[in-house]
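Worked Example 4.2. Consider the chain below.
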Amino acid sequence: MFSRTSACSGRCIDAPVCYDFSMVSFSQPNGLRKQPALKALQEVQEEIYRQLHLLLPDAMTYHDSLVSRVAGSPELRLEVIERHPYTTFMRLTYRFGAHDDRTYAPDAHIRFYHDAHLAEATSFNTGQGCTRTAHPSYPAKQLLQRAWRRNRALDRWLDYLLRQGHSVVTMKPARRSIQEWAAESTVLAGTG
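Applying the procedure from the previous section yields the following C-alpha cells:
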C-alpha cells in the first residue's frame, strides 16, 4: 500500500511508511546541518539581486512607492526607504485588508547594492528594519546563521512572487506610500 522513499535506509521494513529524516538535524539547536559558508550566503544574495531585477522596473528610479497587482495574489508593495549612490534600502511587503484593517506581511527590508550586484534581507520585521544586526562583539557564527535564514527566506519568497506573475510589467507607481496610508488611517480614526 505504501512505498518507500528513494532515500529509504531499509530500517523501516515493518513500518507502513518510511520517513526520511536526513534533511532534519536534531543535533544542532538551529536546525542547520552544517555551518552555512560565507560563499554560499553571497551566492544567495546574488540570486536575490537577479530576482529583484526581474521584479523592479526602471520607474523605481523616479518613484519611491510601487505596487503590483496580480490575479489571485494580495497587493505587493515596494517602498524605497533610502537612496544612496551605490545602495538602495527598500521595503517589500504584501498588503492585506482594506481601510483600517490593513496589515503588511511578510515585511522584508532589503539593502540593494548596485555596484556589488548583491541584495540582502536585513529583516522581516517592521521594528527591526533599521536596527543594528552586526557588531564586532556579536558572535560571528550566529550572525551568519541569522543572515542565512533571512536571505534564504527572501530568496524563496521572491521566487514565489515571480512564479505568481509579479514582474517589471506588473510593478507600477503607487498613488500613495505605505506611510501616507498609515497617516490617513490615523487621521480618519481620530475624527470618527
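Residues 1-7, 9-31 have pLDDT under 50 and may be disordered. The first strand starts at residue 65 and ends at 68. Compare this with Example 4.1 before moving on.
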